[in-house]
Design brief:
By secondary structure, the chain is an all-alpha fold. The chain contains seven helices and no strands. Helix 5 runs antiparallel to helix 7.
Length: about 140
C-alpha cells in the first residue's frame, strides 16, 4: 500500500482551472458548430466566408479538434489534480500552433474577416501557452499526482 500525501492547493488554482475548462468547452462548441455547419447556416453567410469555410483542409480541421478536445481534457485533468494534464495540454498547444499556422499563413482569413480577426487567434495561442506553464507549475508544486 502506497502512502501519498496530497498537498492542499490554493483556491485560485481551482478558479483558474475551472475558467480554463469553460474556455476550452467554448472552443469545443466553436469546433462543433464549424465542423457540422448546415446548408441553412451557410446560406446566411457571405459567399467569401462560405468559400473560406469549405476550403479549409482536413488537417487544419483535425488540428482544431485536437486543440479544443485535448484542451478540455487537460483542464479536466487539472481539476482532478492529475499530472497527465501537462502532456495533454501540450498536445492541445501543438494543435493550436498547427491550426494557427493555417489561419495566419495559408488561408485568406484576414482578407475575409479583416485584420481585427487576428485578436482571437493570438489570445488562443497565449492561453494555450499559459495553460502548459500553469500545469507545469502545479506539477512542480506537488498539486498534481
Amino acid at each position: 500500500m502506497e502512502n501519498t500525501i496530497k498537498t492542499k492547493v490554493p483556491t485560485w488554482f481551482w478558479v483558474v482551472s475551472g475558467l480554463a475548462l469553460v474556455w476550452n468547452l467554448a472552443g469545443v462548441m466553436n469546433y462543433l458548430s464549424q465542423a457540422y455547419v448546415t446548408d441553412e447556416i451557410k446560406g446566411a453567410l457571405p459567399e467569401d466566408q462560405v468559400a473560406l469555410l469549405e476550403s479549409t483542409p482536413s488537417w487544419a480541421t483535425a488540428a482544431f479538434a485536437i486543440a479544443v478536445f485535448a484542451g478540455a481534457l487537460g483542464c479536466l485533468a487539472l481539476l482532478l489534480r492529475k499530472k497527465w494534464a501537462r502532456p495533454v495540454l501540450l498536445l492541445s498547444l501543438l494543435g493550436i500552433i498547427v491550426q494557427q499556422i493555417y489561419i495566419f499563413f495559408l488561408s485568406d482569413s484576414f482578407e475575409v474577416y479583416g485584420s481585427g480577426a487576428m485578436f482571437l487567434p493570438i489570445v488562443v495561442i497565449v492561453v494555450g501557452i499559459a495553460l502548459v506553464y500553469f500545469a507545469r507549475m502545479a506539477q512542480n508544486k506537488g498539486w498534481l499526482s
